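## Example record

The block below lists the input lines for one assembly entry, exactly as stored, with component labels intact.
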Amino acid sequence: MSTAVQPGGGSSARPSPSGLVDVIDTILDKGLVIDAYVRVSLVGIELLTIDARVVVASVDTYLRFAEAVNRLDISQEKEGLTDLVGDVTENGAHGKAKGALDAAGEKLRSLTSDDEDDERGQRAERSSRRSR
Amino acid sequence: MTAQADTAVYVYGIMPGDVEFEEQPTGVGTPPSPVRLVHYRDIAALVSDVDVSSPLGTPDDLLIHEELLDASAAAVPVLPLRFGAVVANENVVADELLEPYYAQFSEALEELEGYQEYIVRGSYVHEAVLREIMAEDPQAAALSGQIRGADPAASREGQIQLGQLISERLASKRALDTQQLLDTLTDQVAMSVVRPPGDDYEAVHAAFLVEATGADQVTAAVRELAADWEGRIDLRIIGPVAAYDFVVTTGPSPGG
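Predicted structure tokens for the full assembly:
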């Protein structure tokens, strides 16, 4: 049994209800699993199940996509197609446009709500310098 | 026969023992208890008491678990635990977790010192990517033309066909765009992990281990990519967070 610092492989897809998108994907699928450490005995605590749709390609998915295509504004379509054909590069990237990354460096808590951002003010610091 | 204890100890993660919190944070559970450290030599586990009869996993519980670890990771290296680890008492933490595996935990913490994890996540702008697919794929365009205005029941087969085609095209785009993201950052990051897609329109989802001194450079590169993808992919970067994606337990599980 060992702990290693290395890329942890992807696990099964687990989608997220809005508002907890990133937290759920991270802490339910990633991180150290304590009961893999042989001598650690776990106490069974009921864990609430997160009711969420499993991302599996299915007929429902396909119908949703078709529906979304149907909803594309037809009047724009002919003009849009011409523009796209002109602009589309190998992987479909458009030309550079001015745009700001709206969440660069944002901490997780800011994604949930602005109110919570102010309330949850966890801060931690080192109490001693570690010598190297 | 011993009586069933009312409380147990919830474990968030492992870190150097010299971390301090400015305020007294509380942990998971309703109502939550204050967090504290259980020490063994120069490492410690971050824990809090929980009521054994109370279920865990409310949205607040999940947020708190992550926030405590991320706040700690801003100051010290952290080995984050998956949500839901509960042991009987503090002695179990010290005697069964920290002591037997002290060398490994110490080594992992040393390796993580000076590094931070960032997560880059992007979703396709629905209309833009669908138009892209219609423009690139004559078969999709033809199917769409047949379906539009037709009786929904009669065109169901065509809808399913079109939907499947779109699903496949999206998967291809996801692979290409993910590769572009990885290529963009490869020289600036120590490690990267691609995460599985979380929903139908997810474009990219990856975690990166970055030297703290190089974080600004990485953020700037992601910003530039976001500008390139403006209108096509909504891109965002989250972090720094504790290194969830880069700390793994290896070896056989008990009972195996």
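The first strand of chain B starts at residue 7 and ends at 16. The mean pLDDT of chain B is 91.
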